[in-house]
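Lab notebook, bench 4. We co-purified these components, and the gel suggests they stay together. Before we commit to crystallization screens, I want a quick structural picture of the whole thing.
Request: model the full complex, all chains together.
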Amino acid sequence: MICELDSASRLPDADRREATARLVTRLFAYHYECNSFYRRLCEEAGVDPRTVTTIRGLAAIPLLPVGLFKQSNAHLLLSRPLDEVELEIRSTGTSGVPSVARRDTKTTTAVALALMAQYREFFSVSGGAGLFLCPSPAENPEMGLAKVFNLFCGLLDRSHYALHGYSIREDEAVEFLVHEQGNRLRHVFGPPFLVNRLLDYLVKSGSELKLDEDSLVVTLGGWKRYTGATIDERKFREKAARRLGIAQANIRDMYGLIESDMLAIECEHHHKHVPPWCHVSVRDLGNPSREVPDGVRGVIAVLSGLNTSYPAFILTEDVGIRSEGECECGRRGQMVSFSRRLKGAEVGCCAVNIEREIDAAHARASRAPGEPSPLSLHRASPAR
Amino acid sequence: MARFSDEIIEHFTHPKNVGELPEPDADASVADPVCGDQVHLTVRVGDGRICEARFLAHGCAAALGTASIVTAWIVGMGPEDLARVDEATVTQRVGGLAPGQSHCARLAVEVLHALADDLRTPQGSE
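Here is the predicted assembly.
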């Protein structure tokens, strides 16, 4: 399915649902067998893998609230022993408490191949130059957002990171893009607020920068800033298209969370497609055990058919809408749109934290010598 | 070497002394600004030596395992012993750390030194 994503995304509904259900139910039975913590959850919920066999039945699979991945006793979530864990990736929001997803070798391989297949299927990238407006994995090796973006580097001929130690160098970013003009097809990757900073810099500095006809701007990380302000997605696309001289169809956002293995990528019509190895279920805002119909806003749940490390059947803290059918782009299947964070949930993920750190670094750099720092990097609040 | 030592695997899978002591005699918190790992220690002291320790930690498995190991290790230590702990000793104590996990030893040293400072601070002086 991963290697033939193009055809898997165009399967008739019945075939695709059957394939997705087969993947997810197989893993449900596996985690029920291998994970005593999860099996107890299932027993308490009265759900047994023998009773879950169809796509409709997936709604009964007990979900792990995403907050569990931040807890000290996260070892309980594992279905495999720690010595089989190859990769730990994390996301850190405004609370500063990291959420850590631990992947065994099999899952690491499956997720890496899946993301690469999606990049190829949605973007057809096989070369060119990439400007990355995000931390590099060299600086933040476990940051989920950095890892997900960095996979693009393997497809590109040249990559450049314009964020150094939480300091963004817009001048360097522009210089890179200007230097690559006429040499390579240029793309820009980063969280929306950082791409937005580049666009504002172009305006302020009066720089005229036009990308290429097939250039892409790919964003990930959410539209809400740590300050609470929101970047309007539609206005952002209009602004980016105008400033960079590319079609809005080439400005694509992605939605995902590290715990779920899922990356939903926008097609040229700006619909976020759920990959066929995942199943999205939207839950009642007041009662997350109840699934709501397509088109109704609720809490997003993601069930992965790839993860053998832990039961990646995740109840997120995101509110959104699911739909299903044939998109104008020709793909069939589930689509998901993110609306907002759940009330009471901390704002955002890696991207939100990046922006906060950038502003903090900027404030430190702007302070007069000898002026005391309002921030302490080494003395954190008690980890609770 | 293996990604995780046997000691880290044991303490991550069966953590010891998890939690917070109510009304501790001393406490310390540290966080790694790059990866976000956090460790919080609380201790009770008798006759100038630690007699009980608890931890709360968030982050990678090596950080969680190291914090658990440390709470068992420091029982019986006084502030001067804590202040002498260095990264090499921690690394040895946890059975070795793979490349990319050395920050866990640094974090442990920082929290133990901060704990030593807190123990040396006369009560009511803050």
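The interface with chain A takes residues 2-4, 8-9, 12-13, 15, 18, 20, 27, 29-31, 33-40, 56-61, 64, 100, 110, 114 of chain B (CB under 8 Å). Worth comparing against the SEC data before the next meeting. The two ends of chain B are 45 Å apart (CA to CA).
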